[in-house]
Amino acid sequence: MTLTPETRDDILRSIPSLRAFAISLTGNYDQADDLVQEALVRGFSHIDQFQPGTNVQAWLFTILRNQFHTGFRKRRREVEDPDGMIAARLAVLPEQGKRIEVEELKVALTKIPDDQREALLLVGAQGFSYEDAAGICGVPVGTVKSRISRARQRLAELLAIDDSEDMGSDRVLKAAMQD
Q: What is the pTM for the complete model shown?
């Protein structure tokens, strides 16, 4: 259906009633005006869905009411954050760097002796104690400690790590490299 002059006049006559209804829903004049405007835009853009001979005001009230409830559901899930403090805490760091760090660590791990890599991964990555790692490897605790120390030194060389600040944000790398 196209917009007829009669339908257009009925829509224009409905605006004060729509505004009063919107004010009763929102309790705020500015929000009510925005809601009426949204309802009118939606009504005009979907005029082909209006059934001639039915009540155009009731149709617009339905659109307005649905717009209000849709907005209400959206706002209910939103958190007001005028100073950005909440958003700042929720920010997620980019993950590309972590992937690169992990790939570099994998390559570097292949370049250290098997016994050192095994000890380092058991303690640093898997979280076993030195004693448990020694039991798993079948060697004294002191041997595990020296293997881990040598492995960390070699990884630091391979990854060009001078201090803990150079390790980036990857928790596995940090766990493997720290005592």
A: 0.43
